Amino acid sequence: MYFEKFPQFAYEFDMAGKSKVVLISDITRNVRFRKEILSNITLYDEYDIKDGETPEIIAEKIYGNSQYHWVIMLMNERFDYIADFPMSYKDLLTYVDDKYGVGNAYDTHHYVNSKGFVVNSDDPDASSVTNLQYEEGVNESKRRIKIASPNVISNIMKQFNDII
Length: 164
What we know:
single chain; 6 helices; 23% strand; extended
């Protein structure tokens, strides 16, 4: 749905010595929400992504149409389907093993004080944060997103079509 409204142009490919012309969507168009819309708290609700939910699942749940997944991604300025959304806990454990090595999940990543500031290990108020705790925090920070109210989705679609 997102790219189908983009203008198209003819592009010539050389495939095994044969020329083939194909219509290509102009993906260089840059469609974003205006900053003032993103900062207007009355236009959106907050939503906590549950384990295993994708932008398509959330769009289907909220808007009744999985094709509006791009609204969720643009609304939150999240463009990487994998890195910008939380992993399932199982995937997180695999990620930690891959990143730090098997058996190193509980090694110290860094130290924090009681106020949450990163400190040296010799600070009298220092507490260790393990690799797993650190990555859990990063993963959890991706869980809360903005959801455009379903009653404004038609306005969003109209503005999108006007821009394109």
